[in-house]
Design a protein that fits this description.
Structural class: alpha/beta
CATH topology of the domain at 1-164: TIM Barrel
Order of helices and strands: HEHHEHHEEHEEEEEHEHEEEH
Length: 399
């Protein structure tokens, strides 16, 4: 997978950089604290040709995060952007949900995520390259962003990563308990251990531990994306050569529900088929606190075109953020709802509606949904006021 990329294929789009600079300056004028995220799944075609990769079952590429050059190329990109935008940005995220391309690109071809092949054998290499890319970019940003843009910043470059932490739950038996331990290790722990402690499990077996010199000590803050939980049972057949991957989701809970259906504990599910389970955010924040003393909830939301349950969702999840802070997870620094407006939801296109504002795809008109008032009132009061406490969904049951 070793390739040398021609420099002629990697010219910077200066107009695009200036466009983003204008956006950031405008946000700062309006009083926003800006976080720049450098990678949200997509890669340039010269670095990743997912069609060629899929058709050849990874025999041809370029292969994106599997390329030996990927960590260095990503670090060069990070250095360039830090140099160009460092005077107006202090808060940096290298990657958003780095486990998603690994899990869905090489282990879940049904998902629609590129390259869409079933090659779990390459997932450890993808994890290693991803962690190396983050740590090299971390150091590059520190070196090239030398300007403190915000008076409340602790340094000129505060560099984190955004991870979709998914708390796992079992069915109450010892086999599913083992499955949840392995899922937590694989999905939640591995990337964070790599960038903080500096080790990676290259066999996904809890034995083949490697400690590359470039890893470790590369996290100033942690972004937590949380939507719902996962409920697991033991399944040993699909990934026989990687013993920690002995789990599968149980239908009817978490991410494994029907669109606009009801989960097995009676919770409403959104347009994506994701169960409303706000208690899981408390568990996600407890886990995140083990790795960082500065945490932001960077994504939390649901697809709800008719805005039937968004108010319940927002109030309930903010309630569990408050619970986390009250019990000692005092590293939580902020909450960002996903999303301000309806967005392009990757393989789901424009069908899913996450926005506080509805977007007319023809006219581009943006119309506030009723739940906008709810989150505005909470922000204004800096509290869940008494008139919204009835919207809190409690912990009636888990499985």
């Amino acid at each position: 997978m070793k390739r040398r990329f021609s420099s002629s294929t990697k010219s910077r789009n200066h107009d695009a950089v200036e466009h983003y600079r204008e956006i950031i300056v405008d946000l700062r004028v309006k009083g926003f604290k800006v976080i720049v995220n450098l990678m949200h799944f997509t890669l340039p075609f010269w670095l990743h040709n997912p069609l060629a990769a899929r058709r050849s079952n990874l025999a041809r590429g370029p292969l994106g995060i599997l390329e030996d050059d990927f960590p260095v190329e990503f670090a060069k990109f990070a250095a360039y952007i830090a140099w160009k935008l460092g005077d107006i940005v202090d808060k940096w995220s290298t990657m958003n949900e780095p486990m998603v391309p690994i899990e869905l690109g090489y282990m879940g071809p049904y998902s629609g995520f590129p390259p869409g092949v079933f090659r779990p054998d390459v997932a450890p290499k993808a994890l290693l390259n991803t962690a190396l890319a983050h740590c090299l970019a971390y150091r590059a940003i520190k070196r090239f962003d030398r300007w403190r843009a915000d008076v409340d910043s602790s340094s000129s470059a505060e560099v984190g990563i955004i991870h979709n932490i998914i708390p796992p739950y079992g069915l109450g038996d010892s086999e599913s308990a083992k499955a949840t331990d392995h899922y937590n290790y694989f999905h939640n722990m591995l990337i964070l251990e790599a960038v903080t402690s500096g080790w990676v499990d290259m066999g996904f077996n809890e034995k083949d531990i490697e400690r590359p010199a470039a890893l470790g000590g590369c996290l100033d803050w942690l972004g937590v994306n949380y939507y719902t939980r996962i409920v697991l049972r033991r399944e040993v057949e699909r990934f026989r050569n990687q013993p920690i991957l002995d789990f599968e989701a149980v239908p009817g809970y978490g991410y494994a529900c029907f669109s606009y259906g009801v989960s097995k504990i009676g919770r409403w599910c959104d347009g994506m088929g994701w169960e409303m389970f706000p208690e899981g955010l408390l568990d996600a924040l407890r886990f995140a606190a083990k790795y960082s003393k500065e945490i932001y909830i960077t994504e939390n939301g649901l697809s709800d075109a008719r805005d039937l349950h968004r108010a319940h969702y927002i109030v309930s999840h903010l309630y569990y953020v408050l619970r986390a802070i009250e019990e000692g997870v005092n590293s939580v620094r902020g909450y960002l709802y996903w999303a301000l407006t309806d967005n392009y939801e990757w393989a789901k296109g424009f069908r899913q509606r996450f926005g506080l504002y509805e977007v007319n795809l023809i006219t581009k008109e943006r119309v506030p949904r009723p739940s906008v008032k709810v989150i505005k009132d909470i922000i204004t009061a800096n509290a869940i006021t008494s008139n919204y406490k009835s919207l809190i969904i409690g912990a009636e049951g888990r499985v």
